[in-house]
Specification:
This protein is mainly alpha-helical. It has two domains: about 45 residues, Homeodomain-like (Arc Repressor Mutant, subunit A, Orthogonal Bundle), CATH 1.10.10; about 140 residues, Orthogonal Bundle (Tetracycline Repressor, domain 2). The longest helix is centred in the middle third of the chain and has 26 residues.
Amino acid sequence: MDTRKRILDAALACFTEFGYEQTTIARICERSGVSNGALFHHFPTKEAIAGALYVDAIASFQQGLWSLLRRRPRSLHAAVRGSITHQLQWIERNQDSARFLYARGHLDWDGPAGAQLQELNRDLAHAYRDWMAPLLDCGQIRPMSMLMINAIVAGPVHAIARRWLAGQLRSPLHAYRDELADAACAALSGAPASARRHPRSLVRQGRIRLELVSDDGSVLAGGEATAELLPVPAPARPATMRAAAARSGTAA
């Protein structure tokens, strides 16, 4: 592993564990095993390290979007679903990098890292515009800016991902893909999203309250227990009733 990557990996670990403000250059050097001189040869400041981490993470994420565009999705739904699928998968596989990006927010656009990021975003936006041009011409996408398109497609994913990374959601992140894609396509095209049916989940456990009551109605003792809940089968019709229905010619 080269020195630059060792420094960036150590910085990401420190930023994740201690936070940006509490992470010092000395702590990064200790975690990476490089000297002050070697670190400053690559990065003049801690801000420069954070900027490089940010740009590298975005570049890594955008590689998947470039791959999607090279396959030339044939429909709006294919492109939106592909973009959201990649976004969710990237976050699941790069959780520390995603946490860092969310915690860091936006870069200083006037700095070197900000200029790099603007160039990355500009090239990708041009590629998306070229791909979307036929869809705009035939009315599959309503006319709107790339800023709005990105907000519609990526914004809700960010909202779900933040909660998932914080441990507030139990389902795997990719479980939200279809609903996110349907909502984004509806917003981009102006057509209402079709309703999705979700299987009804059964509660598997429950709490039972037990009470021992005397003849006069007073409670003598009480307690709680956890019990496994099983679906109740449909009641079988008594044999005598089925026989009677058969004799009378009525369907059983």
